[in-house]
Fold each of these.
Amino acid sequence: MRAMALHEVGQPLRLEERAIPQPGPGELLIRVRSCGVCRTDLHLLDGEVEAQLPRVLGHMIVGEVAGGDRAGQTPGAGARIGVPWLGWVDGTCEYCRSGRENLCPNARFTGRDIDGGFAQYTVADARFCLPIPASYTDEQAAPLMCAGLIGYRALRICGDARRVGFYGFGDAAHILVQLCRWQGREVYAFTRPGDEASQGFARELGAAWAGGSDEAPSEPLDAAIVFAPDGSLVPRALLAVAPGGVVVCAGIHMSEIPSFPYSSLWQERAVRSVANLTRADGGELLALAPRVPVRTSVTTYPLEQANEALADLRAGRLHGAAVLVP
Ligand SMILES: [Zn+2]
Ligand SMILES: [Zn+2]
């Protein structure tokens, strides 16, 4: 099979011919139909998130069961399933036993600790695979598997916030804005200053306001989610939230956060991060998305053009999500 593997930090992914992986006990062999490209893949490429190399990246996988332990059962061979970032947990630590498997210190992640979906085939633990709603095509479903899931978890931390700001309007935000509108929330979209195309995209999807990250929103926010990996956005977002508001950092890596005066945090404002996902998050979002219904905007690339997709993501040239098709 063909795969795009990371061999060295800072170097492009390399196209290679590999043997089809063999599923172990409890694992499924999956023929990959599509795989989303995530900012985390850029962090892996840049060495900001560490992995043992070589590694096949990709953790927004949509595929069909092609063999393995549950192939003869439900979902059986041919069934369409998704493979998210959370690939395995120990199930025994205090986090796992208290519904917080996203924080399991022994967790293994798809496309970081386990070879992922930038390939024609992959293998995944059947217990961590998620059902794909029938109303989505393979390409449209892929962004739900991380952008959607992390966004959903971040939004839940915002509680019943009515006015929600997004700093960075990429794959996660374009999904979340639709969910927010459906829930009766107002979205304020902050993009790179001067990026009018992204601001227009945000308004098209229902944002109440869109502007540059150097601007103040027209109304104080109840919560803000920082998707962009830029630490200087955190003190800015704090200035934009009302007393009692929360700023949620949704990325796995961020540049250093500059110091800020205590008055920015005063009045019970909070800064926190959101990490990974639980299988319960996955089940909830995948049940909710078709009801909204969330529509994803995707740009597809052949598997061999994974490096071009990563470059477009890095440059902010995408509206929505990049998806590889093997
Ligand atoms: Zn991701
Ligand atoms: Zn655990």
Note: The longest strand covers residues 27-37.
Amino acid sequence: MFVAKDFQELYALVSGDQTIDDIGASVDCGIRCDKHCCRPGHTSKYLLPGERAFLEDALAERGDPPFGFASLGYFETIVEPNTRACACEPLRDLRPFNCRIFPYGPRIEGTEVKGLQKGNRKHLEPCWITTPAPMWEKDAVQAWQRILSDEDNLVFFARLATLWEWNQAADRGEDPGHVLVALASLEAASPKERWALCARFFSRSD
Ligand code: SF4
Ligand code: SF4
């Protein structure tokens, strides 16, 4: 599992300009969409295994916490105050990994992250950015490779993938069996199978 040093290095990798204009100037993508992804209720930001403890420790030293935490069962999330759109404005350097990388997931081939891809889901339509800045993209690919090379992180995303596939099957009217059986099968999955699950998860669309 990632420890504080891993999170610090991970955050450093994806703290640059995610979006730039034609002349290479930084673009605040939230202006056009009124910070859609940061508004409470629009998205649920996952925390990686160990990230909540890391952030709680870091926030305890800083005061005025910009967000709270909650468990959504299979993952921990941040809870944003309704009173401001961007909870992390006071402490932007402590925004979670998911906030830094959104809306780009990894494009996976085998056990390698080959690039980035943007999720194609209806509730994210106000998100207008499609092309990451080249330098940021290079570091983000490295960040995803590092994340998924950690066993706990790989299992974390494979678990989300299993739940998503279970849910999709139920929505199609199929009998996907009990969710706990589906999750138990994950325990027996090989690393290669877990990577394959993650690849499907990050390629999902509505
Ligand atoms: S990442 Fe997308 S949804 Fe979030 S502020 Fe930028 S453009 Fe808007
Ligand atoms: S921590 Fe910041 S970037 Fe992340 S959802 Fe909240 S306001 Fe947006």
Note: Residues 29-30, 33, 35-37, 102-103, 126-129 surround iron/sulfur cluster (ligand 1) (CB under 6 Å).
